[in-house]
Amino acid sequence: MTKQKVTLFWFRRDLRLEDNTGLFHALQSDFPVVPLFIFDDDILDNLPKNDARVSFIYDSLQKINTELCTIGSSVLIKKGKTKDIWKSLLEEFDIQSVFFNKDYEPSAIKRDLATQELLAQNNIESFSFKDHVIFEEKEITKADGLPYTVYTPYKNKWLEKYHILGQAPEYDTKLFFSNFDKNSYSFTELNEIGFERSTIKVQPHNLTQIANYKETRDFPALDSTSYLSPHLRFGTVSVRKLVNWANRKNQTFLSELIWREFFIQILFSFPYCVNHNFKPAYNGIQWRNNEEDFKRWCSGTTGYPMVDAGMRQLNETGYMHNRVRMIVASFLCKHLLIDWQWGEAYFAKKLLDFELASNVGNWQWAAGTGCDAAPYFRVFNPEIQQKKFDENGAYIRKWIPEFDFGYNEPMVDHAFARDRAIAVYKDGILK
């Protein structure tokens, strides 16, 4: 039987049909486009069976599939180890070319290089595209070609280059929808990939909630955030559309999107920072790494209401307000002297918007070990943070219902913890 000649488009962290760079180019190839998603065992095997992010990925694929069904097409879903899946696809189809959007995380780069090598061995061309950033890899560099390691000059160069563009290009994929492969593939059930539906939900994003973002973004009780971060992480929205909107409407929000790209280029340029301090001089810090203290931090029972409310919000919903993330991270690293990697790993398990570059970057910022980080002697006082950003206790009471009925004493005195942290950092920073 003659195998069908096709182009494959490989969905990964770009789960949308609209304004999708790689898909736009794939649909202009000479052969029908089979949209593919691989549930990768190397990723899934490390996740709990009710992981909320897997449910969100599944639902996003189902939404894509429903739209494709209206034009007689569908998503081809596979599960297994990526290399094994591609070997089976070579048997199933006469693949003419493969298109996908780039991912800049170290493990993804390794996976993609291995896939491209396998395709090349079978005389199949592969094409990769920039999609989840405006500027990638080495597009924003210092005059000497080296990457920026301080945010503000990076941002200035980023804005300069963006304004030369006028705006980020948006790709009208619908112009070429007729080139989707007209086959109806069976849509896999969630339990068939070994998962069950999570009770934790990704909230719909809403840009109207950030109309006063600059004035309200630090007050968690106001709930004035966009809920965009998981959608950006999994590409259910186009970063180009968001950036173009933010440039017109909200420069403060645009700065946050640029921070995201700053950390992505840091991870790409310095992949060692995933497991090591960005600043090697901090390698001598003697972390206490007390497991009981860590458990209290994880469970939100430290006795510091702002810390505990944040951790309980995270555990119950997969979200945590950005101001509160800074407070809880500083508390873990400075008050408890627990290695930032412990906190980074816990957030990686819980955050709906977990993205390696931002998670590592922000944790190292809080610990003082990263690029353009908070200085080691800055130790947030959780009580002062509470008075500044949750004066009436509305956020705290939402997540700590027992707050007004005799709350726990703080597990460590702030003044003592601050002095201890500064002393340990001073002793540990290598001269």
Automatic annotation (TrEMBL):
Residues 5-134 form the Photolyase/cryptochrome alpha/beta domain. It comes from the Bacteria. Gene3D superfamilies: 1.25.40.80, DNA Cyclobutane Dipyrimidine Photolyase, subunit A, domain 3, HUPs. FAD binds at residues 213, 225-229, 253, 256-263. GO terms for molecular function: deoxyribodipyrimidine photo-lyase activity; DNA binding; FAD binding. Binds 1 FAD per subunit. It holds the Pfam family FAD_binding_7. The record marks W287, W340, W363 as: Electron transfer via tryptophanyl radical. GO terms for biological process: nucleobase-containing compound metabolic process; response to light stimulus; response to stress. InterPro entries: Crypto/Photolyase_FAD-like_sf (IPR036134), Crypto/Photolyase_N_sf (IPR036155), Cryptochr/Photolyase_FAD-bd (IPR005101), Cryptochrome/DNA_photolyase_1 (IPR002081), DNA_photolyase_1_CS_C (IPR018394), DNA_photolyase_N (IPR006050), Rossmann-like_a/b/a_fold (IPR014729). Its cofactor is (6R)-5,10-methylene-5,6,7,8-tetrahydrofolate; FAD. Keywords: Chromophore, FAD, Flavoprotein, Lyase. Belongs to the DNA photolyase family. This is Deoxyribodipyrimidine photolyase.
